[in-house]
């Protein structure tokens, strides 16, 4: 029986740049950084959520990704068609201001939505679309 999700993949164009973005701008912590030849298992996570980590997976050909697949995924990431989230926060405006001060560029400032949340939208440095969300209740 499956119990829970433990690792989710975020496709990134450059693992070193993604690592700096997720740790220095978003405040994630490094969970694993293991290299084996050209392969690098790199994961980050939130201190407040130790049970899940995010693999910053390189958009390059590998044993599991053909050149054609890598090219197609890269186009989707750059177009903002892929992402993970929403990221929950108790204070969308405050988090928006903190992340903006850290250099995160938002596509949409905190906006009141009719479906019960306040959300702001940004992209990571690879182009993945991210939503920052606060429940209004």
TrEMBL record:
- Domain named VOC: residues: 4-135
**Coiled-coil stretches noted in the UniProt entry, renumbered to this chain:** none
PANTHER family on file: GLYOXALASE/BLEOMYCIN RESISTANCE PROTEIN/DIOXYGENASE (PTHR36437), GLYOXALASE_BLEOMYCIN RESISTANCE PROTEIN_DIOXYGENASE (PTHR36437:SF2)
Q: What is this protein called?
A: VOC family protein
